[in-house]
Amino acid sequence: MARSFAQRLLAWARVHGRQGLPWQPGQGQSADPYAVWLSEIMLQQTQLINVLGYYQRFVAKFPTVQALAAADLDQVLAVWSGLGYYARARNLHAAARQLVASGGFPQTAQQWSELPGVGPSTAAAIASVVYRERVAILDGNVKRVLARHGLRPEPWNSPALTKALWPVAQSLVPKQSADMPAYTQAIMDLGATVCTPRQPNCQSCPVQADCQAYQQQRVEAYPKPAVRRARPVRASLWTLAQHEQSIALVQNPGRGLWGGLWVLPAVALDPADLHKRLPDCGQQITHDFTHYRLQIGVVLKRCRGHRPRQIQGQPVEWVDWRAALEMGLPKPVRQAIVQAMQDASR
Question: Same domain, yes or no, for 251 and 159?
């Protein structure tokens, strides 16, 4: 009798699956819901190699959900600084406070999905790994595996592809709930290490025998490319004001891009206007968001005598530049400060 998709995947994972990840339980131990939840939030839209260091620093600072809930949001954003997609950190903090107030962790995927920042796939990953619930995940790695396996015609990242793949993913989970933790990790590992976006290693794939893309020698053509739209360009002029060893920072409101983070005083410009101002800028930075590209000019301003309370019409806080680097800063702000301090020391 032919082995099922799940059986082949589980057999492959016992030999080739990723082992020893810091949130994975030891032999004979139960999975820690806090560790699994945190790892799944960090892994949203972020590769494992970029998550590992942040995960270890985060749990060193906030080892329990109670510690996370008791922390100020500023502290959480400071540890998260540089990992990006900062709404994840804000939602994680808000959810931790909900969990502590309710007295415990959710027990089902449906209950997990009611927390801020926890979508259906993340909820399924937590519930299947921690509580062995027979629910399928559908993150980017799994979508790619199933789109190739089933030769799906829908474009990548389209709602149509997600809708088509959910029932497929659910139909493939193991019949035994005891196999769910290993299966969930295995299908993520398959997409991350074998069924990769480019140059997939099909010869090592445990489900190649019934993968339609492989059988038709069309693996590189799937998933179908996303419909690409031109990324708009925005521009901003930042002021890096320095008074002795202090710099001026502004804290963003709690919502939106870089919500709650500390940034440099800024004014939005038309890209053509910024181009005219670039000769006055000590630094030029380009930063890509999901939906647009931000071109940044950084004007260096040395303040002598008194320290202004407002810059670019914005109230500022003066902070020692070394202390500023320990605060919650977006990556390009951190980059601008570090570069300015290095230039000043030469």
Answer: no
Looking at the fold, whether 31 and 180 belong to one and the same domain comes out as yes
Count CA atoms within 13 Å of residue 180 on its CB side: 21
Measured CA to CA, the distance from residue 120 to residue 111 in angstroms comes to 10
Residue 307 lies inside a defined structural domain of this protein? yes
In the numeric block, the tokens 């309710």 are attached to: 102
Q: For residue 287, what are the β-bridge partners?
A: 294
78 and 35 assigned to the same domain = yes
- Helices 48-61 and 33-42: angle between axes, nearest 10 degrees: 130
Beta strands (DSSP E) in the chain are 233-243, 246-251, 262-263, 266-269, 283-288, 293-302, 310-311, 314-315, 317-320
CA–chain centroid gap for 50, Å, is: 9
| Whether 207 and 272 share a structural domain | no
pTM metric for this prediction: 0.85
* pLDDT category of residue 124 using cuts at 50, 70 and 90: very high
Residue 86 CA: distances (Å) to CA of 40, 77, 130: 15, 7, 25
Tell me the residue range of the domain where 311 lies: 233-344
How far apart (Å, rounded) are the C-alpha atoms in residues 221 and 151? 9
Distance CA 254, CA 41 (A): 19
pLDDT at 285 over 50: yes
Do 42 and 170 fall into the same domain? yes
Give 171-189 pLDDT, tens digit per residue.
Answer: 999 999 999 999 999 999 9
Task: Establish if 226 belongs to a structural domain.
Answer: no
Kindly state whether residues 72 and 213 are assigned to the same domain.
yes
Task: Say whether both 304 and 179 belong to one domain.
Answer: no
Question: 315 - beta bridge partners?
Answer: 310
133 annotated active-site = no
Report the pLDDT averaged over residues 17-34: 88
